[in-house]
Amino acid sequence: MPHHASKVPSHLPTRLAISLWDFTWYTQTTPGEAFADLDAAFGQAVERGYNTVRICAMPFLLFGEHRIDTSALRLTSMGGDVGVRTRWYDAAGGAVLDGRARLLELFRAAERHGCYVILSSWEYQQSPAFLEGPEWYEALMAVDPDDRHRVMADAMSDLVQFLKDHGLAERIAYAELHNEVDLSRLSLAGGGGPSDVYWPQRPFVESAVTRMQQRHPDILATSCYGIPPHLDIAAVPDNGEVAHFHVYVYGVLGALEKWAGVRSTEGFPSPELRSLLRDDAPDVASYEGKVDPWRLSATGVSASMFYSHDWMDTARWDRWLYENYGQWREAMSTAVDERLDVLARHAQRTGTPLVIGEGWVGYTPAARRVRGRPRRAGYRRTSDHPVHRARRLGRRPRLQLGAPPPRLGQRRVAATLEPPPDPGGRLRLRGARPCRAGASALPPSGPGRDRWSVTTRAHG
Fold first, then answer.
1. CB 353, CB 8: distance < 8 Å
2. What ranges do the domains of the chain cover?
3. Bridge partners of 116?
């Protein structure tokens, strides 16, 4: 059984405070957008206590086999006013970028600010939807499902080599095969599909991660699961050198979506959804044909969901969640406990750091306040609880509440737990206390501080 505790490179900091920049670091680059100035973006991240960013590094686009000119990538919006208030999709469009030069620019800015980068890919999820034409999406779809893991592993390995050739390897925290392999089009490998997104692709994930490790044994390589199979954790390969998982517990948010039919395609919009929309919401028919069919397919987001999020009255949305949260609180806390317990044991058994890269509630409209760490005290317990739970699970945990790009009001959660030297030993925590948003709870310098540290800081 793999045991990777000694594999973590010595040059990495003892704590990674992670801010999720996903693909927005290259889709939102025009004047006034979050990443028009990478130095300013890193400066804001560091000011808020972060030292690591997690990105879609677009490995297939930059190093895959296709005929796309990556020196002049034309980025765009979804079309018309579609996506203007939908998280991730509110890009202005119009930028023309040299993809490889942009990657080097990001890494050099990270170096100037003392930051590190987690390499990932959203290419078999959303990323290709932001290119002006369908070439990127079509090239990805042309790869046989059983070859996709290998192709992504090779592209990511080539990207790592590119960074090494430019003297930037020490800025890499670790490399993921792909974001959320279970929620991506990688899950079609081995005949997989909606009924089982884990076991059919398991050997493909394992082989691809091994392939990355063989190319670059000095760089931590792993996979990433969006809905960890906590009741069947053996479906996750053991060879990842970082146990990277996401923990979303929809609970009351799922209840709202079901009640209002946010994701429905029939009888849309329902009277319940209409009761949550802005007073100036147009007729849903106005969205017909505004987004190219291939672009909708590339995003995995329906026109009805774009409409729901673009025209949601976020005060009404938040009010519904606050008013109904009480009946879901215990179930959501229990669900978090069950998942964290299993994931911590998985990390302990494999001797790997555990990273909760995203969480805790779910996908919400861009302007809402309820997502990762809502601002009202009662509902905020949903995001506080996992942090305290993780503290109790780890002997030497390093926990941070991460955040996305500057100006986006959402929060992301990232937590890493380092297992004890004896995988069979009991996990213990010492030398720490809770802290509140905007504050820092760091033990004094000395042995206590070496055991662990926690920061929770707001972005924006």
1. yes
2. 5-247+332-456
3. 52
CB 137 within 8 A of CB 129: yes
- Tens digit of each residue's pLDDT (9 = 90 or more) over 315-359: 999 999 999 999 999 999 999 999 999 999 999 999 999 888 888
Contact 382, 372 (CB under 8 A): no
The Cβ of residue 182 has, within 10 Å, a number of other Cβ atoms equal to 22
Instruction: Indicate the helix (H) or strand (E) that contains 321.
Output: helix 314-324
DSSP character at residue 199: T
Amino acid identity at 241: E
Considering just the CA atoms, what is the radius of gyration of the chain in Å? 21
User: What are 326-331's contacts with CB under 8 Å, separation 24+?
Assistant: 326/378, 327/252, 328/251, 328/252, 328/255, 329/381, 329/382, 331/251
Note the residue count of the chain.
460
**What is the phi-psi region of residue 370: left when phi exceeds 0, alpha when psi lies from -120 to 50, beta otherwise?**
beta
Q: Which residue has the tokens 């069947």?
A: 232
Structural contact between residues 211 and 193, judged by C-beta atoms closer than 8 angstroms: no
- Residues 42-81: pLDDT tens digits? 999 999 989 999 999 999 999 999 999 999 999 999 998 9
- State pLDDT tens for residues 73-118: 999 999 989 999 999 999 999 999 999 999 999 999 999 999 999 9
pLDDT above 60 for 1:
no
- Say which CATH topology domain 5-247+332-456 has: TIM Barrel (3.20.20)
Residue with tokens 């997989």: 192
